[in-house]
Request: fold
Amino acid sequence: MCYNHGMIKWIFLLFLGTSALSYELQKEYFFTDHTIVSTDVFPQIGKRFELVRIPSDKLLFRLDANVVAKTFELNGVKIETGKVRFVTFVKKSPIDVTSLKIQLARFLTERYPAIEIEGISVIPRGYVEALPPEANAVFDASCALNGSGTFYVVDANGLRRYFDYSVEATLPVLHTTRKVSRKEVLNGMNTVQKAIPFDSFRDVPLSSMPQNAQRFRASLKPYTPLTIRHIEKMPLVLKNDNIVVEVRNGTVVLELIATATQEGGLYDIITIQKRDGKRSRAKVIGEKRVELQ
Reply:
């Protein structure tokens, strides 16, 4: 039998594509039917066969990952267990999580008005029979920084019921346009706003230019997404600024001009140099204004 070059190439690519398919076990699966079959674990698999029958009174059922893998192998399918030692099958909860999704969306939009939410997934950890009529979700600070995580609801018995969430969203975030230096002023020339996936942030991302003058805490590489930890308020007094010095003597206030030899924020004590070259200590009381100590 003869095959032309094109046919051989097609057969080779088909074999390569089939062999490249990989099936890797996850730690957890949800079920509605107590008879678990292969397509419950891998919906795209070609063969359908029984894996395990879970007792009708069980809401959770754990199975050794190697046993699952061996069952697939005996049916001609090779799967990977990865780092999974046990597979947990959890009965799907008969609850409506729409209100929890709405609360999560509100939580995020209150913190990031410009966020574009495309989808939200909320799945209970374990089996939850019912939710309170007015279930209030409790989100911690990490929920505002991560596109996936966990929150909880307190049920009618005072117990915490935990839920895993996943958010598909984009958020406009300021990025550096070039390498920036420590103490460089944040402005429209060294930053640009870009929409990026709302995945994971180490701190609150900067979605827009701050109203008050800010500067960089440290040098940053080009195209770095900015968070509040990257910036700080501009000091009221900068080194080498010409400043107004208030000298109080009872009810009399005299003003003179000096040079700041240090920078400082409100109420910081800094060193100044007078016109005669002498140095003194002064307290910052306003923008480019200090009070002699």
About this structure: Residues 98-170 form one domain. The chain is about 15% helix and 35% strand. The longest strand covers residues 160-176. The longest helix spans residues 5-19.
